[in-house]
Design goal:
With about 180 residues, this protein is α+β, with helices and mostly antiparallel strands. The protein contains five helices and seven strands, in the order E-H-H-H-E-E-E-H-E-H-E-E. A seven-stranded mixed beta sheet has the order 1-2-3-4-5-7-6, sandwiched between helices. The model has no long low-confidence stretch (mean pLDDT about 90).
Amino acid sequence: MNDITVRPLGEDDWQDYRSVRLAALRESPEAFVATVEQEESYDEDFWRERMQRSARLVAEREGQAVGVVSIGTAKDGEDAAGELFGLWVRPEARGSGVATRLVKDGASLAAHRGHSHLVYWVGTENGRAVAFASGMGFRPTDYRRPMGVVSEEDGEEEIAMVLPLGSDNGPQLRL
């Protein structure tokens, strides 16, 4: 993992984010609600505004983007919960620690922003994703929601998995 660098992307890095986002949509279209055709048509203003809504982290190896993740605020009406979403790693980099670095750095960023815990929605049928999240310290909850995109790998619903971001686990998660 030492050859992996993770850096935050600011508004002026919108083209870097656009590039890796479109690569993710091309490679794993079943994992996203949006399509590559939709997002290719968006203009610079759209991408700049998107960069302001959530933090974006890109993982790079030898100067090339190999993964991406977004960190925002969970839609629970409070600022206590952060949300990790849009995690994607290039197929050739999977299993090499890229996702682990992105999640660890994303969790650190969420904690720095004052979030008490981090929510990660995972397809209930996606055993690999559930195992990965569990291995990172995320715990399953009773919260479920319909999948935005139903797939054989993920199933028809998602489960909210939660990672406490400090020694105090705080109040029960409310979504």
